[in-house]
Amino acid sequence: MGRASRDEIDALVGPATPHFAYQLRARIEELVRDLPQDDDVRRYGEEQMARLDRLGHASSKADDSEPEPRSRIGWDTIPSSAPEYDPLP
Questions:
Q1: What dihedral do alpha carbons 6, 7, 8, 10 form, nearest 10°?
Q2: Calpha distance 21→19 (Å, rounded)
Q3: Long-range contacts of 8-17, Cβ-Cβ distance < 8 Å, separation of 24 or more
Q4: Largest interatomic CA distance in the chain
Q5: 80-85 contacts: CB < 8 A, separation 24 or more?
Q6: Domain boundaries of the chain, sorted by first residue
Q7: pLDDT digit of tens for each residue in the chain (89 aa)?
Q8: What span, in angstroms and rounded, lies between the C-alpha atoms of 22 and 2?
Q9: How many CB atoms are located within 10 Å of the residue 31 CB?
Q10: Cα–Cα distance between 55 and 82 in angstroms, integer?
Q11: pTM surpassing 0.70?
Q12: Is 6:44 a contact under the CB 8 Å cutoff?
């Protein structure tokens, strides 16, 4: 396998959904595991792996849409109702 790139990581993360977040995270981990700790692509991959961890607990990536209101009945008790950038406690 050749050297991992940001474009390859973006291609995996871009269409990610909560359902497949952890499988994609594992693929990125494979891509960057042999890179040096201080490598820019490795750090970027680790940032995206953290994002996928948050997405795995979210209901939607919601990068370009309004978040669902948390005022919906019952949603305050469902951790998966939060977007990856603002998870519930």
A1: 80
A2: 6
A3: 9/41, 9/44, 9/45, 9/48, 12/48, 13/48, 13/51, 13/52, 16/52, 16/55, 16/61, 17/55, 17/61
A4: 49
A5: 80/18, 82/57, 82/58, 83/58, 83/59, 84/51, 84/54, 84/55, 84/57, 84/58, 85/54
A6: 6-81
A7: 568 899 999 999 988 888 899 999 999 999 999 999 999 999 999 999 999 988 887 665 555 666 667 677 776 666 666 666 777 66
A8: 23
A9: 19
A10: 9
A11: no
A12: yes
Query: What is the token pair recorded at 43?
Result: 């750090």
Residue type present at position 62 = A
Tell me the torsion sign for CA atoms 30, 31, 33, 34. positive
- HEC readout, the chain: CCCCCHHHHHHHHCCCCHHHHHHHHHHHHHHHCCCCCCCHHHHHHHHHHHHHHHHHCCCCCCCCCCCCCCCCCCHHHCHHHCCCCCCCC
